[in-house]
Amino acid sequence: MVLFQRCALKNxxxxxxxxxxxxxxxxxxxxxxxxxxxLLLGHRCTGYSTISGIPGVRERTLIxxxxxxxxxxxxxxxxxxxxxxxxKLVGMKMLQASEELLSQHYQELRRKPFYPSLLYxxxxxxxxxxxxxxxxxxxxSRIIVGDxxxxxxxxxxxxxxxxxxxxxxxxxxxxxxxxxxxxxxLWFHQKELMDWDCYNHNSTYEL
Length: 207
Ligand code: UDP
Ligand code: MG
Fold this sequence. Notes:
Blueprint: H1 2-13, H2 29-41, E1 60-65, H3 67-71, H4 75-85, E2 88-95, H5 99-105, H6 115-122, E3 127-133, H7 137-145, H8 158-162, E4 171-173, H9 177-187, H10 201-204
Antiparallel strand pairs: 1-3, 1-4, 2-3
The chain binds uridine-5'-diphosphate and magnesium ion.
Residues 109, 114, 118, 148, 166-167, 169, 172, 175 line the site of uridine-5'-diphosphate.
């Protein structure tokens, strides 16, 4: 009932899925018709509620286009992989990462022999960091990104398609749900992340 009320209110204010985010609209005849439809058929006839029966639908992961990816103008193609899959972008920014931030990000790798060259690489130019949201997004993103070593990465993955050597593998993806939460907090302030409703949410998920 609470869900019903929330949807009813939401859809009276923003009656068409295509109008989400435009603010309060005048209630015209067609909106009233649509609202009447909503009352008859319930929430399935209109947009979506952020309350969903699918577990983990709000899971988030950190994806970063590394300096080589930015220099090679691959940002758009990498983002497209996540958009076409159906994940939702909830945060994005371009920045020059500091060594301090990277040492926290790569805290488990500090003792590895390649760590100094990893720092040099990651500070060699701007990176684009993003937060993507959706069911199983952490695990699925690792599949989209491919093996750490591009020579092992499958064709069709980002690393498989766009890189050759492990030292220049174009993209970062969190490797666990807990790791993703830690990394997102490290790279983003809460206010930089957007909660927004996809108008086609119920074409992607069963409600
Ligand atoms: N890396 C490297 N040489 C190695 C292993 C890793 O340069 O032998 C770099 C590479 O850029 C990799 C990053 O360190 O993406 C982080 O390593 P991790 O094992 O966490 O791989 P990832 O999670 O990125 O697949
Ligand atoms: Mg890793």
